Write a sequence for this structure.
């Protein structure tokens, strides 16, 4: 009776009995199979022992035959050796001009077969960071269509904690230093703490340049980092893999949040982003760790540095000249201030959503909510200023301003009043607007020159200034004002430089000069080093 029930058992018993010394006839009789079957199984077993194992079936060998590419094999090899980066399309174009009559696919397959494939670069291992130790930050532009028509372009700030992988995205209109600090303040508030380090690329708000291989950080951003107690780390130039987590997070933002959504405006985009954070992004299960991100963050949160009691002041501070009708301009809109501040250079403080206008003595003049960028709006003060009321400045107020500029300006205004009230008021206001580009002293000199020649017209004064004065910015105006206030409080320094020849007459230890002393009109002699005897003599005489 056969003692096997499957082919595997048969092969096993054939091989086992053969190794015990039984012959083919005996094995065949004991197992109930033919002798040729035993020989066949032993031969297959011997082949299996001598060949490597492979899960892929072997390709059948076929007799090679000539194709349309065969006559051009040598020419293709010559092109590949001469031009290492040549494409199959370029090879096809070249040999077609030389007489090749086949198609592109055959050339592509042949080039792919004969050209050695480039070595695969393995992915770099991602460094492991402890809880609260490292974060990554970056920007990406984003353009989305609006339901009402048009397109909205914004800047998306991404921030990722490397340990828990929690992500925070923020929408901003620009990606400058102030927007970067605004994004960090909001991100730290959402996380409830600050990581110890954060990686950045070489954006100007963080890195101003390099001294050799060392980055030179933006001092304003360093002050911000010092306030929150984290250390910025600049990645190597052109190395996005130095911060892979935030780079990958933007793919998730585009595929998970932007995909399949519609937005009315920027505010709707921010509102939907906040809901996506809470309902999708934070509860998402990490694929490798198999745990929700919000649970991982709960373990990391105690290791974050605590927030300061008050957030950092990230407001922009600029100086604007108040216009004739009582407005200051910012980002394509105009914001009203009281009429008493007309023609003054006013400090303007701009936060992410508000605008504050101060008087030169830093008294608050106006407070506005920011209008959309480049909307062309006039934002009025209902209690003080109405956009529909366009009243000018009275003559007495203008006279006081010109008198403050100096004698030349006062005389110019006196001559200007002879033109009549209406012309005087218009020309005076246009002249005062020149203070935005020229200093008050240059304007006073130009007014005196214009008065001498009877040129009582603002265009004439502008031509004089352009010919004789150097334009300046409002920042220089503020610097001049600070210097003037410092000199008023401390007095002007009257330090006089000393004659450098006095240093030649100072005594030097161990050096003597020829006697008698030289005269002022003579060349001083060369100092001679005293000998040891001279030093001993001088000490003994002392």
């Amino acid at each position: 009776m056969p003692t096997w029930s499957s082919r595997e058992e048969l092969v096993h018993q054939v091989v086992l009995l053969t190794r015990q010394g039984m012959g083919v006839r005996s094995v065949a009789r004991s197992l109930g199979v033919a002798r040729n079957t035993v020989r066949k199984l032993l031969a297959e077993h011997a082949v299996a022992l001598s060949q490597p194992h492979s899960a892929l079936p072997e390709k059948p060998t076929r007799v090679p035959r000539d194709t349309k590419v065969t006559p051009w094999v040598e020419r293709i090899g010559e092109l590949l050796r001469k031009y290492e980066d040549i494409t199959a399309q370029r090879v096809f174009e070249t040999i077609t001009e030389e007489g090749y009559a086949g198609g592109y696919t055959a050339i592509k397959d042949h080039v792919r077969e004969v050209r050695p494939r480039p070595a695969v670069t393995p992915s770099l291992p991602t460094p492991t960071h402890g809880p609260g130790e490292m974060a990554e930050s970056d920007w990406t532009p984003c353009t989305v269509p609006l339901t009402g028509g048009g397109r909205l372009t914004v800047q998306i700030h991404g921030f990722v904690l490397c340990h828990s992988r929690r992500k925070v995205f923020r929408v901003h209109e620009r990606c400058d230093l102030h927007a970067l600090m605004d994004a960090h303040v909001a991100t730290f508030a959402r996380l409830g703490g600050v990581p110890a380090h954060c990686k950045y690329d070489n954006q100007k708000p963080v890195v101003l340049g390099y001294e050799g291989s060392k980055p030179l950080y933006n001092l304003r951003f360093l002050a911000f980092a010092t306030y929150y107690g984290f250390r910025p780390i600049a990645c190597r130039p052109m190395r996005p893999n130095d911060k892979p987590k935030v780079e990958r997070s933007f793919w998730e933002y585009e595929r998970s949040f932007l995909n399949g959504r519609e937005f009315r405006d920027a505010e709707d985009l921010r509102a939907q982003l906040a809901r996506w954070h809470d309902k999708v992004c934070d509860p998402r299960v990490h694929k490798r760790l198999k745990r929700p991100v919000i649970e991982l963050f709960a373990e990391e949160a105690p290791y974050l540095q605590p927030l300061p009691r008050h957030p950092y002041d990230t407001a922009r501070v600029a100086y604007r000249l108040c216009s004739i009708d009582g407005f200051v301009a910012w980002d394509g809109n105009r914001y009203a201030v009281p009429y008493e501040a007309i023609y003054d250079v006013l400090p303007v403080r701009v936060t992410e959503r508000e605008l504050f206008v101060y008087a030169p003595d830093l008294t608050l003049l106006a407070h506005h909510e920011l209008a959309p960028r480049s909307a062309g709006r006039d934002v009025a003060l209902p209690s003080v200023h109405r956009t529909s009321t366009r009243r000018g400045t009275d003559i007495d107020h203008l006279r006081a301003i010109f008198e403050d500029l100096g004698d030349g300006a006062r005389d110019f205004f006196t001559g200007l009043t002879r033109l009549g009230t209406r012309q005087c008021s218009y020309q005076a206001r246009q002249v005062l607007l020149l203070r935005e580009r020229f200093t008050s002293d240059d304007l006073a000199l130009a007014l005196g020159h214009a008065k001498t020649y009877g040129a009582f017209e603002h265009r004439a004064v502008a031509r004089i200034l352009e010919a004789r004065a150097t334009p300046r910015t409002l920042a220089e105006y503020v610097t001049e004002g600070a210097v003037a206030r410092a000199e008023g409080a401390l007095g002007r320094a009257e330090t006089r430089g000393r004659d450098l020849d006095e240093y030649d007459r100072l005594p030097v230890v161990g050096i003597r000069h020829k006697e008698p002393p030289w005269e002022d009109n003579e060349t001083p002699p060369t100092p001679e080093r005293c000998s040891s005897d001279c030093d001993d003599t001088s000490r003994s005489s002392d």
About this structure: The chain has six domains: 7-48, 70-114, 134-303, 316-379, 395-490, 510-541. The radius of gyration is 43 Å. DSSP finds 18 helices and 16 strands in the chain.
